[in-house]
Amino acid sequence: MTTAVARTSADTADPPAEPGWALRVRELGRIYGDPGPESLPGTGPEHDTAISPRTGAVVGAWDVSFDVAPGEALGLIGESGSGKSTVMRCVAGDERATAGSVHLRSVPGDTVRMSDAERRRLRVDQIAVVYQDPAAGLNLDISAGGNVAEPLTAAGRRRFADIRSRASELLERTEVPLARMDDPVRTFSGGMRQRVQIAKALANRPPVLLLDEPTTGLDASVAAGVLDLLRGLLEETGVAAVVVSHDFGVIEMLTRRVLVMKHGRVVESGLTDQLLEDPQHPYSQRLVAAARG
Amino acid sequence: MEPVLSVRGLAKHFTMHTIDGREVTALRGVDLDVRAGEHVALAGTSGAGKSSLLRCVYRTYVPSAGHVWFRTAGGAVTDLAALPDAAVGDLRGHEIGYVSQFLRAEPRRAVLDIVARAGVGRGMDRAVARDAAAAALRRVGIAENLWAMHATVLSGGQKQRVNLAAGTISPPRLLLLDEPVSALDPANRESVLDMIADLEEAGVAVLSVFHDLDAMERLATRVVVLADGRVAAEGAPGDVLRDELEVAR
């Protein structure tokens, strides 16, 4: 278990190009509070806490590394507070990592060190997020078509007919009735809002897609429909996806590989079927046993 | 001819952290080779380690010690026991097939899609994969009126045949079979056994577990008997199986 903090100024060079990954995360860390090295000792799964006994800082995530290949989906699983959403937000650019690097194959440079403006720009067509709460990814007061049009306009599309036709194509693919395209999203059901969010996320065909608990909070039958949609889209588009979930059913259906997190650290990584059939870490074994009943 | 699969010193222990760290040993150092076109059947009593061996080769189980050398289509020899997860995932799609006795079907997915999806995973074009899936389903005797149905509603024997069709849509280099005919009626059993024989003739290396000795005798070129996680005997099916039957009596 590494506890060295000072990785921020070193290795600013881009990793050498090698095929096989669309998203590369290395030694990512996010500390809430004092970001100094004294905040790390005494935290992590072996200490059963993410809170530093010395500084009171919360080590939301530390030393998280993974690659995701085009067309591959990687799961992040753990209980609430394990750090999986922290990792996702740092990769998405919603938060800035305290340490480590995030590279996209399609863009030169480490996104952790980019300006806020540059990072927002990546969200137009390089990296998209589907949040658990559709209100986090959509403007509920404008129409479904308007929400989907937003990234299209941001990417430089100007012709109304062109934007309209791409928006309808996306809503059709995500099974949102076109008759409701001009209704405000606030009038939509939870499942339908999630479908609009997915349509918006895919608008500019980003090479990387992050899904944060995409079906949590939906009725079982509605969740199943959204999962089926996501499964089909992941297979068709060749996008590299990271799926954050506490639900093994979601992870099993959507992902090929998985990282298990606890108290901000990765305690195990493996092929998804291996994690379910032969979990190694005591915490993974407890999680799987609880999920399998 | 160099083996496609070469297992050396393979051991598997489970540490059950939820049950006071109890240790369970499934394999205690297994050596085994399978060549192209060869069918090695694993025999032995239940609990001898047969399924654990298949699962260690497929990496559903993490081997505790030893090597699982696999010769890829490109001629490279790689240790499946130590290969990174993503690389194992790629080989599973393209070169290693696995058909399990556990009749799990993907939820809410049509039969034809399940099999076609396996073809796309093997690098087939989408349209080609659908044709190949149709052919594979015909080969295992799944009637066309079932192709659009969700696999979860099928009978056990039908699910098993869908799994077989998916596992064999294009011949893998190595095919792992865990009781592939256990849920089948006699007629379907015959056609599936014929299909496995065809794959062997096409040069696929097969490592199998069969509950039924007839199937084993008919298909296997070699039988390896496991006992208590070790290789206890090995030989031509006729000889080994006769000895086994003697012991069983």
What does this structure look like?
The complex is a heterodimer of chains A (293) and B (249). With 293 residues, chain A is an alpha/beta fold. Chain A has 10 helices and 10 strands. Chain A has helices at 84-92, 116-125, 134-137, 144-154, 160-173, 190-201, 220-237, 248-254, 272-277, 282-292, and strands spanning 23-32, 58-68, 73-77, 99-104, 107-110, 127-130, 208-212, 240-245, 257-262, 265-271. Chain A has a 6-stranded mixed beta sheet with strand order 6-7-8-3-9-10, with helices on both faces. In chain A, strands 2-1-4-5 form a 4-stranded antiparallel beta sheet, with helices on one face. In chain A, a hairpin with a 2-residue loop joins strand 9 (257-262) and strand 10 (265-271). The longest helix of chain A is centred in the C-terminal third of the chain and has 18 residues, at 220-237. Chain A is globular and about 60 Å long. Chain A starts with 22 loop residues before the first strand and ends with a helix. With 249 residues, chain B is of the alpha/beta class. Chain B has a domain at 1-95 and 173-179 and 203-209 and 223-249: Rossmann fold (3-Layer(aba) Sandwich), CATH 3.40.50.300. Chain B is built from 8 helices and 10 strands. Chain B has a 6-stranded mixed beta sheet, sandwiched between helices. In chain B, a hairpin with a 5-residue loop joins strand 1 and strand 2. In chain B, helix 3 (111-121) crosses helix 4, helix 3 (111-121) runs parallel beside helix 5 (156-167) and helix 4 (126-139) crosses helix 5 (156-167). The model of chain B has no long low-confidence stretch (mean pLDDT 91).
